[in-house]
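Q: Could you predict the 3D structure of Hydrogenase expression protein HypE?
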Amino acid sequence: MTIDSGTHDVATEPSRAEAREGFDEITILWISEGMSCDGDSVSFTAAGQPAIEDLVLGLIPGLPKVNLHNKVLSPSLGGEDFLAPYRAALRGEIAPFILVIEGSIPNQKIIEGDGYWTSFGNDPETGEPLTLNWWIDRLAPKAWAVVAAGTCATYGGIHAMAGNPTGCMGLADYLGWDFTSQGGLPIVNVPGCPIQPENFMETLVWVLYHAAGSAPPPPLDQMLRPQWLFGKTVHEGCDRAAYYEQADFARDYNSPKCQVKVGCWGPVVNCNVPKRGWMAGIGGCPNVGGICIGCTMPGFPDAFMPFMDEPPGGSFSTLMVKPYGAFVRRMRGITNAVVNREPKWHHNKPVLTSGYDPHWRP
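A: Sure. Here are the predicted structure tokens for Hydrogenase expression protein HypE:
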């Protein structure tokens, strides 16, 4: 780089990524009035890397100041006091904000004029309940980012299963899979029934760093899930996976072996719980003897029912691996026996038998 009259020669200056302006403060408006059990709100309070307390107290370097509004954690008096920031966001008085939706979205059109499926506060003028759909229609277009928390919000979940009367769906089904927020982001889906606490907080922190201007958008897969969290299967991270390879399968739920034949869908389900655990790295379905029923998947629950039955492909896949697994298990058993013996020169006799040969010395 050359210097001329105290200024840099632009032609020879190294290229740099263009800095993007970020926000110093952002609001999170969390609505859990979708068809749900509020389990996702409860679950994310168990996060520790980081904890929600660290987030709202500003203890994470580089993040904007976060104003969180969630009914489970709200110190408000409830009612209109709790609804105040949501109404302010409608009026354009709060920006930027991240809209988090918990619970599946019912189809209000099928009962238009004949009641409602779920509501969030009342219309101040008429006193009539305001539906979840009403709020989403007005807040989502104004939101800097939109996050769906839990399988109900991402793909419909339990309430959207076959035969339901509500016409429930996931948030992307409702807003459209090509929806883009004010921040230029698609909907960010974090599935789980409920969400794994660290998965949600890690994703939220990434979105917040992006809002601060210090990180790129979070990479999402074709189902709008964070790629780094849902890019591998349960089976790939499961402590029991080696038993599958050796065709050593559990026949009951007290066994430490692979549980495919007793109903586990782990080989085809995108989820990192076996590797991450549930709280503080502890727990997680297969880690504690539970089968994977596919609760993070778009096809849940219909595609995985009846629970506890061997998956349709389980019989064929376990049959195919059986001769290979039996042979490998036998060969490994032989090798294990060999390497479990100490070398023959480990003895207290007056002669050295280790094979030591000093021929290289002058």
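Q: Anything worth pointing out?
A: The chain has a mean pLDDT of 90.
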